Amino acid sequence: MSTKEKQMNMSQMIGKVRITRIQEMSGAGFPFELMYPKYSLEEINKHRNWMTPNYMTADTDQMFQSQSSWIIETPETTIFVDPGNGNDKVRPGMDRFSNLQTNYLDKIARAGINLEDIDIVLCTHFHSDHFGWCTRLVDGKFVPTFPNAKYLFSQTDFDWCENMDPATEGKIVDGGRRIECEKGMLPGITAATKPAVEDSLLPILESGHLTLIPQEDMKIDNFVTLINAAGHTPGTFRVDVESEGETAIISGDIMHHPIQVFNPDWNSIFCVIPEKAEQARRQLLKDCIEKNALLLPTHFNNPTSCRIKEVAKDSYDIVWDCL
């Protein structure tokens, strides 16, 4: 299959709207046992056959994950959602996201998108792997990657990041099997997010490209709506796309892994407000069923897109799609 054909297969039409997936990277992530406090080996074993090898490693029971961004082309607006980790960024405590050199910008170009054509950049939440490509390194300085775009980001998450204290952060111990937290902060998030704010957000704030928005539902145009889904972080949004009776939902980290479709009560260790995170996840699943929506999560590996079906009350299954 040619490069062009592969890239074409990364796009999906939702009525009059084209959504294109840009995959920055993929690979083994956290062990399930560490990622989910409600982890159950029995539950993992129930799904092991279909999860291996695309969604978990066969030998170490690690989550296999992707890092995806989404380009939404409506008849009115071109929108970029969750611009990944970025190159040349130092991320203490998150070595696999630090000092990357990926061909992410080449993938955007192969999708037929010029950086100058992006009208709006959206971020589902302020974890460093979701907004690193807001800037890129040019002549030793981080500048806006999408020079003509308006960046619409959560005021709530921005304030939350500003108040982070890396000194309160926990550590992963026991060979990666347990978290040790003195004051409740989760490992890696604060240490990685603070420099991300400095190299990826402050330059667009200072250049006048960044608009901080309140934590409430907001229409971007006649096809795209930001939906308040606070929980994973205080300022988490999801992005709903609707056109000609069809719906797609870009969910960010409301779910990190397909195992959470079968276990919606499984919050990750990075969910800041656990009760709200679970509520947002259950609402997402119900909305996917009610609208027969194409679900587009950030971290599901290949294939990433899926639809959700209800097999019993509060019990769900996955129907995989093409992206």
Automatic annotation (TrEMBL):
Residue stretches making up the Metallo-beta-lactamase domain: 66-299
Keyword Zinc: yes
PANTHER family: QUORUM-QUENCHING LACTONASE YTNP-RELATED, QUORUM-QUENCHING LACTONASE YTNP-RELATED-RELATED
Name by which UniProt lists this protein: Metallo-beta-lactamase family protein
Family from the record: Belongs to the metallo-beta-lactamase superfamily.
GO molecular function per UniProt: hydrolase activity; metal ion binding
Signal sequence, renumbered to the chain: none
Membrane-crossing residue ranges in chain numbering: none
Matching InterPro entries: MBL_superfamily_lactonases (IPR051013), Metallo-B-lactamas (IPR001279), RibonucZ/Hydroxyglut_hydro (IPR036866)
Swiss-Prot/TrEMBL keywords: Hydrolase, Metal-binding, Zinc
Organism: Shewanella violacea (strain JCM 10179 / CIP 106290 / LMG 19151 / DSS12)
Organism classification: Bacteria, Pseudomonadati, Pseudomonadota, Gammaproteobacteria, Alteromonadales
